[in-house]
Amino acid sequence: MSFTTTQARDLINASNPTTLTPPSAPNRQQLRELLLQGQKYVDRGDFSRAIAVYQQAATLDQNNAKIFGGMGYLYVHQGRYDEAIQAYQKALSLDPNSPEFYDGLAVSYASFGNNNNAITAYAAAIELEPNSPKYYLGMGILLLREGDYQRVFDAYQQITALDPNNEEAAVMMGAALLQQGQPEPTLSYLQKAVQRFPQRLELQLQLVTAYLDQNNLEAAKSLIESLRQQDPDNLSIQLKTGQVLEKESQWSEALQLYQQAGQKQPQSLEIKAAIARVLLSQEDYGAAAIAFQALVNREPNNADFYYGLGLALQKEERTEEAQPYLQKAQQLYRQHNNVEGLKKVELLLNH
């Protein structure tokens, strides 16, 4: 997980050299008052006014890294990620040894869709504070998105060495194993993880998925029914229930459940993917192709989405259109060492 100091400096990207001119005595008093006022707005959740106050404070003290770091934090909460990146870069140009500012910069880059720069920022934070599990976790989650599973495992080992009872790391590891498509080690890991962290819902839902991957429908149904009784309105449990219905070929029931869930969370990628899967299973290939095309556009490194689009097009006898999508799926499955994914896509390519 090494990074270069040049990479870190590139992330800071300060456009102008810092001139260290301390505020005058009257300005110091005004600055203190502004910072107190800004904190009050933050405490109330009035981030827009807080930002305006901090911007005014920054004109009085352009060398205060904490002011710019605070502005970055507030920009993130408002979804203004480009401005957050600039604020954290300014903060780091003033204080390049702050792991917290690199953490904020990483969150900003990740939210802006730039995972590579976010990973580099987390690496810088780790270099500065190697005994903090949260930076390894942040990096690990981004590596998981990128399908870099070996480095996810490395991050998991670092986290558990520092904090053996870190539940977030256990969830991250479960997701990585599931995505790699290796059912037996995944099931073994998740059974132990659920025993260790019995209150962690994500691990139990991952275990349902592992049962489904091994075609152990009875175990999956038993566990999901138990979870539904505990929390019948939980959206994640409802979605996993839909996957069980899919496994039972109850397509109409599954589609209805997903569409209802989509009304509650219309931007959910997971729900949209579930609807696309069911449309494919219902042999509504035209609608499935449209749904998978939208998914590919939104997440261009997801092998399953390319496979689904290629399959839908092939079923519509649009073989030439299907080929590049299936080849892309093959490339991504191979890159991610997904053996099961490779098998199914190569069957289509050789058809």
Keywords:
351 residues, mainly alpha, Serine Threonine Protein Phosphatase 5, Tetratricopeptide repeat, 78% helix, 0% strand, elongated
Query: What's the order of the H and E elements?
Result: HHHHHHHHHHHHHHHHHHHH
CATH secondary-structure class of the domain at 1-130? Mainly Alpha
CATH superfamily of the domain at 1-130: Tetratricopeptide repeat domain
Radius of gyration (CA) equals 24 Å
Largest sheet: none
Treating each run of at least 4 consecutive H or I residues as one helix, how many helices?
20
The first-to-last residue Cα distance is 41 Å
SS-based class: mainly alpha
- In CATH, the topology of the domain at 1-130 is named Serine Threonine Protein Phosphatase 5, Tetratricopeptide repeat
Poorly predicted spans? 1-8, 14-19
Shape: elongated
| Integer average pLDDT | 91
Determine the strand fraction and express it as a percent band: under 5%
How many β-strands, per DSSP?
A: 0
